[in-house]
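Reopening this ticket.

The earlier resolution said the output was attached, but the attachment link was broken on my side. Pasting everything inline this time so it's all in one place.
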Amino acid sequence: MKQYKVTFISLIVLAVVLAGYFLISGLIGGEPSNDDQDQVRRERVLAFNPNRVVKIETHYKEDFVLEKIDDKWVCTSHDDLKVHESSIISILNSYANMQGNVIVGEDETIIVENFGFHDDPPTFTIYLEDGKSHKLLLGNTTLSGSEIFCMFEGGDKVYKISGTFTERLQVTRATITTNKVFPNINKERINTVELVRHGETKYIIRGDFSGDEKAWKLTYPFTIKGDSTQINSLVDTLMALTVGDLVSTNVEDLSEYGLDVPVAKYTVKDNQTTRTLEIGDRTSDGYNRYCTVNGENHVYLIAMSKLSFVDNEVTMYMNTYPFLENQIVLSSVKLTIEGEVWNLDYEVTDTEENYWFNGVNVNSPNKDLKSQFKKITTAMYSLRLEEIDLEEPKPKELICSIEYTRTDNTKVLVEYYRRSENTCYIYVDGEFMNGMIYTRRITGDTSDSLINVVRNFESLMNEN
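Inline output:
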C-alpha cells in the first residue's frame, strides 16, 4: 500500500512538471502573437535610389505632377507653383528609408475594403530613370491613429507604416512649396509695402535708395519720412510670415472665407517681384484666419498670433520728428521764437563735449552748464508732429524757426507757422509735414515749453 502511495505521488509530481514545461515552452517558444509577427516581418517598403527618380505623380485633395528637368524639380501640372526643392528631396529620402510591418503576406488574400484601398485612395507614384514606376496606395489609419496601411498597386503585400509618413506622401501645395508668404522677395531691395483694409488703401510705404543708406517714406495718404525702426520691424515680420494648413483649393466663392473683399491685403514689391497676402475671416475657434497668397483661390490658415501688426495705423510708421539726429553731427543751431534769436554752437566727439550759447562757452570755469544746455536741444527735438492734417495748409505768421547746421555744412530748416490760436503747421525745408503741433509746446507758460527752457538757461548763464 505504501508503494502505491509513493507511485501515485510520483505521478502527480511528474504531471505538474510536464504541465510547467509545456506552459513555459508555449510562452517562450510557441507561435508568436500578431504583434510579434509584425515585428519579425518588418521590412523596407521599397528599395530605390532617390537620385534616380525623374517624375512623381500624386493624388490626394489635389493632383500634382512633378518632374526633374535639368536636375531641378518643377511642377508641370501647376505653372503657378514654385517648387521648394529641399521639400521634394526630403520626401524622397524619407520614402526610400520607409519601413513597415507586413500585415498581409504574398500567399494571403488581400481584402482591399478592410484596409481602405477600394474608394479612390491617396496615391504616391514615382518614375525611375530605367522606366520603372511604383504606385503606392495609402489606406486607412489604424484604430490608434498612429499608423496607416499601404500597398503597391498590383502588389501582394499590405504594410502598416508610421503615420508620420502621411503628411509627406499625401501631398498638398504646402508639402511641395515653402510655406513662407513672401519667399521670393529680396528683403534688402524691397521698394514698396502697401496695406489695403476692406478695399480701402490705408498706407503705401516706399523705399528710398537715393542716399548712402536705405531710408523709408510714406507716400500715401500723405508724403512724410518713415520711421525706419518701425518699418524695418514690419518688413521683418512680413518676411517671416508662414501659412498653415491648406483648407481648400480652387475655391469658387471666396466670400465664404471673407476673402472676396479681404479684411487686409498686403502687397510687397522688390526690384523684380510682387507678391500679396490676402487675409480673411477668423476661423470658428478664433485661433486662425483664412488667407490666400498672390490672389490665388487656394485658401490656407494663418495663425492669429502672427497678425498683431495688421491693426497698426499709419502713424506707427511715420517719422513725426522734423529733426532727430545725434548731437555729434551738429555744428550750430539758429533758434528764432517770435522774432527773438539765439545761437547755439556744438563741438561734440566721442570723448568730449563743448557748447556755446550766443558765443559764450558753457564749459568755462564755474559755468559747467552742459546738462542744462542739452535740455534746450531736447526741447527743440521734441517739437514734433502731434496730429495729422491733410487739408491744404493756410499758414499765418511764423512763430518759430530752427535752422540746424551739420558738421558737413548741410542744413535743415524747421518752421512752425500759426495754424490757429492753439496750433501750428510744421514745415521742413519748405515742405509741409501734413500735420500740426500745439503752440503751447513752443510758447506756452509751462516750464517745459521751448521758450521757457531757453530763458531759464539764460538766467543760469547770467547768474554765473
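Reporter confirms the inline version is readable. DSSP finds nine helices and 27 strands in the chain. Residues 1-9, 21-39 have pLDDT under 50 and may be disordered.
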